[in-house]
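QA checklist item 7 of 12: single-chain prediction sanity check.
[x] sequence parsed
[x] length recorded as 89
[x] structure emitted
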Amino acid sequence: MTPDMVAELLRQLMKEAMILAAPILIAAALLSFVLSLLQTLTSLQEQSLTTVPRLLLVALVLLAGMPWFLGRMASYTRLLFTDLHRYIR
């Protein structure tokens, strides 16, 4: 396997990881922004007001998106296994 092949495999892996992580990270960031704005406007500085909703949102996004996440990972794994002959020489 040449260094170019390794770089291409890593590029594809990082692309898939970013695509899979994006919905969770975007949802958590948007909720954090809204909660921070709410805390600033109401002068509440309780840490559990931000942590608990963020954990619940991430869990809900993971549960709701699980079929998509698993399908995406399965298709990527299938692609790797079908192209395996290119990398083993």
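[x] summary fact logged: Residues 3-38+46-87 form one domain.
[ ] second reviewer sign-off
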